[in-house]
Amino acid sequence: MSTDRQRPYKTVDEVIALLRARGRRSDVPLAERRVVMDQNTKVFPVPAGIAIEAADLGGLKAEWMLPGGASSSSTTGPVLLYFHGGGYVIGSALSHRHISGELARLTNARVLSVEYALAPERPFPAAVTDGVKAYRWLLDRGHAPNAIAFGGDSAGGGLTAATMIAARDQALPMPAGAILISPWSDLTCDTETYVTREASDPMIAPAGIREMARLYLAGADPRDPLASPNFADLAGLPPLLIHVGSEEVLLHDARILAERARAAGVDVRLEVWDRMFHVWHAFYQMLEEGDAAMRKVALFLGERFKEAGAKAKA
User: Fold this and answer.
1) N or C: which end of the chain has fewer CB within 10 A?
2) DSSP string across 39-72
3) CA–CA gap between residue 208 and residue 219 (Å, rounded)
4) What percent of the chain lies above the pLDDT cut of 90?
């Protein structure tokens, strides 16, 4: 249980009822949806003891989430490079502060949450370009790759994979590992769970996510490996932890990504959480399963930092 949580947990059914009452907001204008998503910070407070500091990554905006008096200027110690979700069209470091802040608290690592390009103003591949830029910024400042992990949820999970693929292809060293939470990794939006989970997913409407894909791709091939990592050569990627809920539209995205990564020789842990919906981790302050999932993510990150650090010293 999070030490600063003050409210009793709700059941899974209660949280799903709240989500269904809010509705899947694909029919709301994009500008309004961006405002609404940023209001997450009013519903889910940042954990106590986490400092927030703006960062300028050579013209790319980001936020540091700093635990326990940690310094953003230090180049030693673990860093999680985090990419928020929102279908590549909404979301921000602000909307996801409670997630990035909790990961900083649980891991005692600094989290750098990136304000990558959003569509339709800046469509594909601008988000991937920004992801690689953020990683290069850390490396250029002297952060060791074995002290860096990547992570993201939903579109940010897909961007996590795409950024690593692009970084590998540019001969950059791989980070220590990556966490992918309910990743959107196939922008064809044509996997079987778009049909079999449409009724059970309280957050994602297939029509709405297909519109997000259209805005992001802006005419690009949805099978481009940097848009849809499920179609990429995944060889050489670091260890991955993939979390996905059994009731979400993107279930098959995650399964296929794990299968193809494993076939390429990547160390993959795929966890399908029973009865869970899209990015249930975001509800860790009210949902016991969300809190448990965040802790599993933090445990994996701690393992990766420890193992990579030991290999570097050997």
Assistant:
1) C
2) THHHHSPPPTTEEEEEEESSS-EEEEEEETT--T
3) 17
4) 91
Q: Are strands 79-83 and 61-67 parallel, antiparallel or unpaired?
A: unpaired
Q: Name residues whose C-beta falls within 8 Å of residue 182's C-beta, 6 or more positions apart in sequence.
A: 85, 153, 154, 157, 243, 244, 245, 248, 250, 254, 278, 279
Q: Where are the alpha helices (DSSP H) in 12-152?
A: 12-22, 30-38, 40-43, 97-107, 126-140
For 62-80, how does the pLDDT look when each residue is reduced to its tens digit (9 = 90+)? 999 999 989 999 999 999 9
Facing residues of 53 across strands? 64
Q: Which bin fits 239, alpha (ψ -120 to 50), beta or left (φ > 0)?
A: beta
- Choosing from 154, 182, 185, 228, which is the catalytic residue? 154
Maximum distance among all Cα pairs of the chain, rounded to whole angstroms: 55
Question: Among 102, 248, 281, 289, which one carries the catalytic annotation?
Answer: 248
Pick the catalytic residue: 96, 143, 252, 278?
Answer: 278
Q: Which has the minimum average pLDDT: 20-24, 42-46, 157-161?
A: 20-24
Helix axes 97-107, 288-313, angle to 10 degrees: 50
d(CA 254, CA 235): 17
Task: Check if 281 is active-site.
Answer: no
pLDDT at 182 over 70: yes
Give the DSSP H/E element, type plus range, for residue 80: strand 79-83
Query: For this structure, is 248 an active site residue?
Result: yes
Secondary structure class of 138 (helix, strand, coil): helix
